[in-house]
Amino acid sequence: MTKPAFSIIGCGTVGTCLADLLHRLGYPAAGLASRTRASAEKTAAVVGAGQVFDKVEDAALAGDMVFITTTDDAIGPVCQDISSKKGFKNGAVVLHCSGALSSELLASARDCGAYAGSMHPLQSFAAAKPGVNLFEGILVSVEGDAPARDMARQAAEDLGAMCAQVDTNSKMLYHAAAVAASNYLVALLNLAFELNQGAGIEPKESLAGLMPLIQGTLKNIEVQGIPNALTGPIARGDVGIVRRHVEEIRAKTPQMLALYQTLGAQTVDIALAKGSIDEKRADELKAVLK
């Protein structure tokens, strides 16, 4: 089956990576445009294909699948500008790669008879290099008009990614989940480091000492899932130990107490779901964690 020709509007790290990988998979590179011509020319050099255009609408018009890979703030205005100049083909698919924003940001493309969608790779592209497939094995979320979803899904699967459809009206929750799993994991580990520092263990030692525990927990989640991967004093219903934790934290690292209590209360609910504690013990634990 013939693969759709693609255009990239916004030749930064993500746009360049997509262009390089899609071209290697047999997708024809059509138009390239960016805020500066030099940026688009750099992408063309990496890909070894694609025509550089000075006008974004000309670059977009060359493609059957158009990726707007600008900053999030610029996606809507850029799409609107292209649409106002009839820069999308009738039947073309227009996609952005934002994790937080939905395809409705591209609604103006429909005025040209194009389809709007989003295709978000759950991946950091800070280490992107030509020829290195950062899509292999990752999750890519898609949403939007059905033809856009279908084309995005095919591209994602061709890139070796897993694909999931996200509710267009709940895209921000999907993004919040990614933030919780990545950014808030850093905050969680900082809590552990702060508590250990209060006990006399320096952060460098904490990292080395806790890493096997962290990796073991992640492996248990992968194999057993939540809630079955939960262990520890709350899973055992050990009210006395949890009470001692709260007392020690309040006395020695009080700035960490609110976070510990909030996470503890959530952990009680997980222990209940696991069935390792009953409602009475759950109420006792939550009382200690208030």
Automatic annotation (TrEMBL):
It comes from Desulfatibacillum alkenivorans DSM 16219. PANTHER family: CONSERVED HYPOTHETICAL ALANINE AND LEUCINE RICH PROTEIN. Residues 7-121 form the Putative oxidoreductase/dehydrogenase Rossmann-like domain. Pfam families: DUF2520 (PF10728), Rossmann-like (PF10727). SUPFAM superfamilies: 6-phosphogluconate dehydrogenase C-terminal domain-like (SSF48179), NAD(P)-binding Rossmann-fold domains (SSF51735). Residues 139-266 form the DUF2520 domain. This is Predicted oxidoreductase, contains short-chain dehydrogenase (SDR) and DUF2520 domains. Signal peptide: none annotated.
